[in-house]
Design a protein that fits this description.
301 residues; alpha+beta; 17-stranded mixed beta sheet; 6 helices; 17 strands; 45% strand
């Protein structure tokens, strides 16, 4: 079984071309758990398989995404950017653009240069700007964002707020990582979040510049970057008029990502008027780390 190892701003993935391998989909959770284990195998945040689109879906390719624990992910922003490059390198799609089918809906990717790729993320299907979650007697205010439909759940937690006291640091970059990990894990599994959530800790450090650290469900740890997390965070901050939504710089451990919000408008729903975001774009680097053949003797397919 051939593979590519890729990363997008440090968010790393094993990519399998299932157009060639033709593996049954029910085997991928097991493959993901085995190959993503960092000390025992190749190691990655997730596994992605490139497959043919579902019947009736107008797309160039389908992205099957699995977290390192084998769970299915609705979508992955940095993964979609890497898949966009993978498709370009393999002649899938036309020109510099590709349309990718994901569990959360269609995603379009565009090649900016050899390593820089831009994707249009799924539009948020739900945004709650001011949600309160009780945590160990503390009321944690956050924004709740669902990207796509079915939605990929994110919460956006402002730092410093009350977290500064809990983490013994004025700024996110200096926060006690062990304490923040504990808070992130509890929020990720919070009883008031029906699907759990990815937890994005953010701090605005300058005009249209944000520091972010994301605890990702399925990985169950902080990752070097989270594309859908940056998109969710900037979408919420834009609606609250805390950033402009125009080429917002997001600093993550693995590198810098940029988010653009194309349109903010009002939509009428059964519950009343709702402010929505349309056209959420993620731009950032890709890296082909290595290419090879899986010879893992512990893996039984």
């Amino acid at each position: 079984m051939k593979f590519w190892k890729m990363n997008g701003a440090g968010n790393d993935f094993i990519v399998i071309n299932n157009l060639e391998e033709k593996l049954p989909a029910d085997k991928f959770p097991e493959i993901a758990r085995a190959l993503c284990e960092r000390h025992m195998s190749i190691g990655a945040d997730g596994l992605m398989a490139v497959d043919k689109p579902s019947e009736g879906v107008e797309a160039d390719a389908r992205m099957l995404f699995f977290n390192s624990d084998g769970s299915i992910g609705e979508m992955c922003g940095n993964g979609a950017r890497c898949i966009s490059r993978y498709c370009f390198e393999h002649g899938i799609g036309e020109g510099d653009e590709v349309t990718i089918e994901t569990t959360a809906g269609l995603v379009t990717g565009k090649r900016i240069d050899k390593r820089l790729y831009r994707i249009r993320l799924n539009d948020p299907s739900l945004i709650e700007l001011h949600k309160i979650l009780e945590l160990d007697g503390e009321a944690i205010e956050c924004s709740y964002v669902m990207l796509g439909d079915p939605g990929l759940p994110h919460i956006v937690v402002d730092y410093p707020s009350q977290l500064a006291k809990l983490c013994n640091a004025e700024h996110l970059a200096d926060a006690d990582r062990n304490k923040l990990f504990e808070i992130g894990r509890k929020l990720r599994f919070h009883k008031d979040l029906p699907k759990g959530a990815n937890v994005n800790f953010i701090e605005i450090i300058a005009e249209d510049e944000v520091d972010e650290l994301t605890y990702e469900r399925g990985v169950e740890d902080f990752t070097y970057a989270c594309g859908t997390g940056t998109g969710s965070s900037v979408a919420a901050l834009t609606l609250m008029e805390r950033v402009s939504g125009n080429h917002v710089k997001v600093n993550m451990r693995g590198g810098v990502l940029y988010i653009d919000v194309e349109e903010v408008d009002e939509e009428d729903t059964d519950e009343g008027s709702n402010t929505c975001v349309h056209g959420l774009y993620l731009t950032g680097p890709t890296n082909i780390v290595c290419k090879g053949t899986v010879t893992d003797e512990e893996l039984r397919i």
